[in-house]
């Protein structure tokens, strides 16, 4: 089964404001639609999450570039997170932390990305 990289924009109440999907699991190319959605939803936007269906559990160099551009455009840094098969990581105050208590949308995000069952939880 093929995997897809999915991007979610999350609002203040933890709701999914917007979603897009890429056929290329290694990289979710910047899309004009996504930038427009981010700008339109900027007042409510609290978190930008995306999946790495084939790993790794961490931010790529493309992600770093995108996060920097977004932070500059918004004038503030939303929370950024990556959901991978083995867990979820978020950037909080400039540090990458493992998210132990995952939000409700993490598992649907895995499903939408074509990931299979979550491996055994990390100790
Ligand atoms: Zn990424």
Biggest beta-sheet profile? 6 strands, mixed
The assigned CATH architecture is 3-Layer(aba) Sandwich
Shape: globular
Query: Taking all residues together, what is the mean pLDDT?
Result: 88
Q: What is the share of helical residues?
A: 10-25%
Full CATH superfamily name: Cytidine Deaminase, domain 2
Beta percentage is 25-35%
From the helix content, strand content and strand pairing, which structural class follows?
Answer: alpha+beta
Q: How many distinct beta strands?
A: 6
Count, helices: 3
Distance between the termini: 29 Å
Small molecules held by this entry: zinc ion
> How many domains make up the 3D coordinates?
1
| Radius of gyration from the alpha-carbon trace, in angstroms | 13 Å
CATH class: Alpha Beta
Order of helices and strands: EEHEHEEEH
User: Taking strands numbered 1, 2, ... along the chain, how are they ordered across the largest sheet?
Assistant: 2-1-3-4-5-6
CATH topology-level fold name? Cytidine Deaminase, domain 2
Stretches where pLDDT falls below 50 for ≥5 residues?
Answer: none
Would you give an account of this structure?
By secondary structure, this protein is an alpha+beta fold. It has a single domain, classed as Cytidine Deaminase, domain 2. It is 24% helix and 28% strand. The chain is built from three helices and six strands. Strands 2-1-3-4-5-6 form a six-stranded mixed beta sheet, with helices on both faces. The longest helix is centred in the middle third of the chain and has 14 residues, at 61-74. The radius of gyration is 13 Å and the shape is globular. The structure holds zinc ion. Zinc ion binds at residues 50, 52, 60, 63, 82.
